[in-house]
Amino acid sequence: MKRVGVLALQGAVREHLQSIAACGAEAVPVKWPKDLERLDALILPGGESTAMRRLIDHYGLMDPLREFAKTGKPMFGTCAGLILLAKTVVGSNEAHLGVMDVAVERNSFGRQVDSFEAPLEIKGIDGAFEAIFIRAPHIVSVGLSTEVLCVHNGKIVMAKSGQFLGCSFHPELTEDHRITEYFLSMIPHKSDLLLPNRSIYSKV
Ligand code: GLN
């Protein structure tokens, strides 16, 4: 069974845990560095990125999270979680984890519309996805290796960059688990990991 962690410091933790379980994977709350052991993937939830950052520092999680990113295992940031993953946060001279090749701007849909719902067309997901945005960031620019998966009102709201998936909205606040399933499908099958590296063999 796939084991998927959710950073459990602040924000929409329980909803992500429920969505992972609904997709048939084991859901693991992550509060301490040791909780990252034996995970296949990790979700950073929505909430408040500055509060979450303070707690990451408090629990000594920054280096372990960066080490986790180096293993190449999939990581998914939703809303504030996307801000934590981004290499650049507009208006701030310091990134948080700084691992996903995107630049994000916080609270970028205007204070008048703190939260709204919108049906989205997302690459790789069949049919519209009814998305909930809450004081959402958007992606202002992406690196060359980043694939844009969804644009809403001219703003990038979902992207994938290698092992990293990020979205501006809150898929976990709906009963629609297709985005969690999409993320789980980024976890390599154990059997693939045991096979000899085909690219090495093809060169022989
Ligand atoms: N505005 C929040 C932040 O900057 C993100 C909002 C959310 O996660 N719903 O962290």
TrEMBL record:
Pathway(s) annotated for this protein in UniProt: Cofactor biosynthesis; pyridoxal 5'-phosphate biosynthesis
Keyword Lyase applies: yes
Key words of the record: Glutamine amidotransferase, Hydrolase, Lyase, Pyridoxal phosphate
Superkingdom in the source lineage: Bacteria
Gene Ontology molecular function: pyridoxal 5'-phosphate synthase (glutamine hydrolysing) activity
Organism phylogeny: Bacteria, Bacillati, Bacillota, Bacilli, Bacillales
UniProt family annotation: Belongs to the glutaminase PdxT/SNO family.
Protein name: Pyridoxal 5'-phosphate synthase subunit PdxT
Residues annotated as catalytic: C79 (nucleophile), H170 (charge relay system), E172 (charge relay system)
Function: Catalyzes the hydrolysis of glutamine to glutamate and ammonia as part of the biosynthesis of pyridoxal 5'-phosphate. The resulting ammonia molecule is channeled to the active site of PdxS.
Transmembrane stretches, start-end: none
EC nos: 4.3.3.6, 3.5.1.2
Binding, L-glutamine: G47, E48, S49, R106, I134, R135
